[in-house]
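Backbone-to-sequence.
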């Protein structure tokens, strides 16, 4: 925490010079460093740099830990998206259920719960979703958001159905373009790649909406 705070102050210093200078001295960082490296002023403190191999080895920051953090970030991001798609306010406490793909320490479960702003985070390897449950799949497992009592299922089903129709129409447009030889042979390669990527994104969105509709239908 000490390391993170000291480097955060350095990053904020160009934007908040007086406040960060005051905090730098008040939190004791000026006493821990030589004069020319932050001992007299935060202005002389080294600018944060990416961790090199020696630094990572010193703090035992193996790749497995970095990958674990990435997985946790992915799970939380998808969980927040579930809430947004259901139009549930970010500050409203909700219940999430996690069907984990791996064992998780209690501390990490608590961190995920806080980042999701969840009232409870139930970890249940045997969970089977019922009606009115939105879900998303991540490397860390499957995350479920029961929406009963939080949203109008009938209205949400109508909205998702309408959105699905829109996405299917967009897929048809892109497929029509990619099936047109006059288009594929004349456009630059990067434009063709962009359209193929767009098609992949629309198909992924379609699959996601269909899964949401299945959850609403039970």
């Amino acid at each position: 925490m000490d390391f993170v705070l000291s480097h955060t102050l350095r990053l904020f210093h160009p934007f908040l010079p007086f406040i960060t200078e005051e905090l730098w001295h008040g939190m004791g960082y000026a006493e821990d460093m030589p004069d020319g490296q932050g001992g007299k002023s935060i202005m002389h403190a080294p600018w944060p740099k990416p961790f090199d191999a020696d630094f990572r080895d010193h703090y035992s920051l193996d790749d497995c830990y970095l990958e674990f953090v990435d997985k946790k970030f992915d799970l939380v991001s998808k969980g927040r998206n579930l809430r947004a798609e259901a139009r549930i306010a970010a500050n409203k406490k909700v219940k999430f259920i996690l069907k984990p793909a791996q064992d998780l320490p209690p501390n990490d479960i608590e961190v995920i719960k806080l980042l999701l702003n969840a009232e409870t985070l139930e970890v249940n390897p045997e969970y089977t979703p019922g009606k009115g449950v939105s879900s998303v799949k991540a490397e860390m497992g499957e995350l479920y958001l029961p929406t009963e009592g939080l949203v109008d299922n009938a209205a949400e089903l109508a909205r998702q159905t309408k959105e699905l129709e829109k996405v299917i129409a967009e897929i048809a447009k892109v497929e029509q373009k990619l099936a047109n030889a006059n288009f594929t042979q004349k456009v630059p390669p990067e434009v063709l790649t962009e359209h193929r990527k767009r098609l992949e994104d629309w198909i992924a969105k379609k699959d996601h909406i269909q899964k949401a509709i299945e959850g609403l239908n039970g």
